[in-house]
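yo, Alpha/beta hydrolase fold-3 domain-containing protein is done. seq:
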Amino acid sequence: MPLKSSTAFAFLLTFFLLIAKSLALQTSCNKDPYKQLNLILNPNGTITRPNKPPESLPALNSTLRVLSKDLSINQSKGTWARVYLPREALDRNSKLPLLVFFHGGGFIFLSAASTIFHDFCFNMANDVVAVVASIEYRLAPEHRLPAAYEDAVEALHWIKTDQEADENDWLRNYVDFSSVFLVGSSAGGNIAYNAGLRVASGGDELAPKIKGLILVQPFFGGAHRTGSERRLANEPHLALCSNDAMWKVSLPDGVDRDHEFCNPTVGNGPARVEMIERLGWWVLVTGCGGDPLRDRQVQLVRLMQRKGVRVVGHFTPGGYHGIQDTDPLKAKELYRVIKTFIHALSSQR
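structure:
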């Protein structure tokens, strides 16, 4: 049908330009995303990480508010746990919840020893008043997913089955194993989610009973862009190109971002959410308006609500992805949300 006016033509032209811009966001990047991440992608598929972020050692100093120590899980894989114990636990008659924590880093960098996560777990143990076990897992692309999930499941086995070992006295003496939560920030939230479902789907008797999931700005994706991803495509803390680059070297070869490891809302995702409902787990999902992944996190919360999962979504305005790792005040707010969530469940016993 011929256009009847220049106004109509201008409208259609604008419409198609907007579509083209949206498609360009899905397919092109102006800069090398690995360079922006300070990483070098090698021809053999590995990554060189030139500048190692600062790391912190555990401390058994009795003058500290929180004690910490490292315990080996699997020496052949290089996996271990850093366990944090609030000093006040030494003088309490009651045992504490256990938060099994998985750090962020897009599956490809950082460590449980990284100072940002050491400080985060130290303060979380103190403020929430809980034992924290922060898990060191293998990184992609040298070990693509599901390697991190496998390491997480093995860590849960270790927590339950190695309690009698002398070095595991903190877990044995101070943990209430009826109050175990899987906690993760960013990629760690993805690991907590997927590892928890792996344990649950097989009726795994070697893992501790899980009471709930605490997903802090969980790192999920998908083949089609959400509104927040388009709106915040160049957000410096998690640019769209960097996001895509991390998924490219983390997912199994030959799959896209609608794989179940990445997108929990498509394919078999709804059925997996139904399993969470049957298990009776509680779920806390936190996020903020300045995070490009916010819409995906909200989508997951809404899917859980439709499936009858007991889920709490806590979303704040502004901010950015990973804000709790760099802003102490925001971290304090998060600890209060986590503590309230855990204590509300404890009062329901």
